[in-house]
Amino acid sequence: LLAVKSEPLSDEEWIFIKHKVSALCATFNKFGLSDKTLTQIKSEGFWALNIPKQYAGLEFSAKAHAKILTLLSSCDVSLAVTVMVPNSLGPAELVLHYGTDEQKQDLLPKLATGEHIPCFALQPMLMTQLFISLALVDAVPIIAVGISLYMIFAI
Q1: DSSP string, 59-122
Q2: Counting CB atoms within 10 angstroms of each CB, which of 80, 110, 112, 119 has the fewest?
Q3: What does the pLDDT profile of the chain (155 residues) look like in tens digits?
Q4: Cα–Cα distance, 91 to 118 (Å, whole number)
Q5: CA–CA separation, 14 and 8 (whole Å)
Q6: Which residues contact 71 (CB under 8 A, 6 or more apart)?
C-alpha cells in the first residue's frame, strides 16, 4: 500500500467540494431531504460524479468521490446515501459497462443532468440471495485479514 501513488484532487474537484458540497449541506440543514434539496442534487451534478464528461458528467476521481461522500455523511447519512447509491449502484454504472453506444448517448446525459432520476430495484427473493452473497463476499477479505494478522503476530 505504501507504494501506491495517490494523485491530488484536481482544481475542479476541490472547487466542487469547497462550494457545492457545503451549499448542499446548508440546504439540507435548512429544508431536510426536500424537493429543494433533491433539485440541488440534480442541478449541481451530485448524481454525475462518475459519469464521463463526454456524457455531461463530472468524471471525478474515486478520491474526490470519497471526499464528497465523507463530507455529506458528516452533514447527514441520509443525504450521503441519496448521493452515494446512484453513483455506485445506479444505472449509469451499468450503462457505462454494458450499454450500447446509442444507450450511452441517450441515457447518460439524462442521468448526469437529473432529467432521469437514477434508481434500482431488487425483487425480494433476489434481494435475499444478493445480501447473502454480499455477506459472504464481504466476509472473505475480513477472514483473510484476520488470518494474516494471526500469522504475523501470534506465530
Answers
A1: ---HHHHHHHHHHHHHH-HHHHHHHHHHHHTSHHHHHHHH--HHHHHHHHHHHHHTSS------
A2: 119
A3: 678 788 899 999 999 999 999 999 999 999 999 999 999 999 999 999 999 999 999 999 999 999 999 999 999 999 999 999 888 877 888 889 888 999 999 999 999 998 888 776 655 555 555 554 444 444 444 444 444 444 444 44
A4: 6
A5: 10
A6: 17, 21, 22, 25
Task: From 118, 3, 8, select the one nearest 64 (Cα to Cα).
Answer: 8
pTM of the model: 0.73
Instruction: Compute the CA torsion angle 129, 133, 134, 136 (nearest 10 deg).
Output: 140
Q: How far is CA 14 from the centre of its chain?
A: 17
CA distances from 113 to 5, 57, 108, 131, 137 (A): 32, 8, 9, 31, 34
Here the cell at position 29 is 440543514
| Cβ–Cβ under 8 Å, residues 99 and 84 | no
How far apart CA 24 and CA 14 sit, in angstroms, is 15
- Grid cell in block for residue 112: 448526469
CA 106 distance to own-chain centroid? 21
